[in-house]
Design goal:
The complex is a heterodimer of chains A (about 100) and B (about 270). By secondary structure, chain A is of the alpha+beta class. Chain A contains 2 helices and 3 strands, in the order E-E-H-E-H. Chain A is flat, with a radius of gyration of 19 Å. With about 270 residues, chain B is mainly alpha-helical. Classes of the chains: A alpha+beta (about 100), B mainly alpha (about 270).
Chain lengths: ~100, ~270
């Protein structure tokens, strides 16, 4: 097996849009290492003032749920509406939630 | 206090011409991420040029010599080669040496190492110059310098990063970058002698004598080249004088492409 990797590894990009909010996944890109991935994320994903902070994570470090498990993982929550806090009124002062 | 208009044009033309050159990569860069980065750098440079042209136009109009009134567009699109004050370094094509090719349309011959080496040499100089110009006695210019400094520091970071990666990379990337430096380094001599406009600006403390930045620039360049395991080629031979309006044969082609549309449809808007 050859060790020469032609494609640069893939990175997932997370951007925090302003202080106090969480980082959100916004896309992915190819880069040779973490430092370059950060720089490229800046160029590709924050051109329109989208962010104040960037995280990059190797895509290979992410473990994803299998699409085939969708039924058993997620369907059981479907009929449990009492888990939604829709029976409370949120005071206006609370703001973003 | 107001800086000489020619001093403003020297800064503006350099930003515009390099912005135009780097924009040739748009849609053609080696990878998508780099395509965006190069376009961002171009837009920063063209933004700097716009601020400087707007200011220069205001100043020239106040002198009341030109009718109709000048605008940023008339300065960018309706001046000819001898009126441009950019460094010769910035008008060169993205080719490592004299390949005989002039037109920027020869896309297949474009060399990314040349682009990186040029952006590095220029942004290292401009990071120092903008920093100094923040203290210009011309308040308008000082404000433009403060804005441009942040952008230029990023350009320096971006090009220095690639310089190190490619210099300390494969045999081919290293050879290409060394060739690009060999080709471009002599053109950096133009940075250091003072043009008439630079002398006048320095005398009134609206500008700085370029020679005062040379030691810091040398240190920036040596530091990066050492990290990139590249040799610093000598900067010797003919000293170009683009900033005095004496240009290479390449600028005409750049202006032809850049100004063609504006000249065929004067005053057009979208």
């Amino acid at each position: 097996m050859s060790n020469t990797q032609k494609e640069w590894p893939l990175w997932e990009v997370f951007i925090r849009s302003k202080q106090g909010l969480e980082h959100k996944h916004c896309g992915s890109l190819h880069a040779v290492d973490a430092a370059q991935a950060l720089q490229m994320a800046r160029d590709v994903y924050t051109r329109r003032q989208e962010g104040v902070s960037i995280w990059v994570v190797p895509s290979s470090a992410i473990t994803a749920s299998a699409p085939d498990d969708k039924g058993e993982l997620f369907d059981p929550a479907g009929d449990k509406i009492y888990r939604h806090p829709t029976f409370y009124r949120i005071p206006d002062e609370v703001g973003h939630m | 206090m107001q800086a000489p208009v020619d001093y403003l044009l020297q800064l503006a033309d350099s930003a515009l011409i390099l912005g135009q050159r780097n924009a040739e990569w748009c849609g053609h860069a080696p990878v998508l991420e780099e395509d965006m980065a190069m376009a961002n750098v171009s837009l920063d440079l063209i933004g700097q040029a716009r601020l400087l042209y707007q200011y220069a136009a205001t100043r020239l109009n106040a002198e009341g010599k030109s009718a109709p009134a000048l605008t940023e567009d008339s300065l960018a699109y309706f001046r000819d080669v001898p009126e441009f004050r950019n460094y010769t370094l910035l008008e060169l094509p993205h080719f490592p040496s004299h390949t005989g090719l002039l037109a920027p349309a020869a896309a297949a011959e474009r060399d990314f190492a040349t682009t990186i080496a040029r952006n590095f040499l220029y942004s290292a100089y401009m990071a120092l110059l903008w920093e100094a110009l923040q203290n210009s006695k011309d308040e308008e210019l000082a404000a433009i310098a403060a804005k441009s400094l942040k952008e230029t520091r990023y350009h320096l970071r971006h090009s220095r990063d690639w310089l190190v990666r490619l210099g300390d990379g494969t045999a081919e990337s290293r050879q290409r970058l060394q060739a690009a430096l060999q080709h471009l380094m002599p053109y950096t001599q133009e940075f250091w002698f003072a043009s008439e406009a630079e002398s006048a600006a320095a005398a009134q403390s609206t500008g700085v004598l370029p020679a005062t930045l040379q030691a810091d620039w040398d240190a920036l360049v040596d530091d990066a080249l050492q990290e990139a395991t590249l040799q610093r080629p000598p900067a010797a031979g003919y000293v170009t004088q683009g900033k005095c309006g004496r240009h290479s044969e390449h600028l005409g082609y750049v202006l032809g492409e850049m100004q063609g549309l504006a000249r065929q449809h004067p005053g057009a808007s979208w």
